[in-house]
Amino acid sequence: MNRYICYCFKYTEDDIINDIKEHGKSTILERIVSAKRLQQCNCALHHPEKR
What we know:
2 strands; mainly alpha; two-stranded antiparallel ribbon; about 50% helix
């Protein structure tokens, strides 16, 4: 099952794996962290566990 890693931006495990293969690191994680700093992430609304 390809589960979501980020519910706000709909990134999946496969997205992260492919990103690392392509870039040698996870640029997706960098984007998520940056969005959280800018308060563009709403995990409390989108994540099933509200976290």
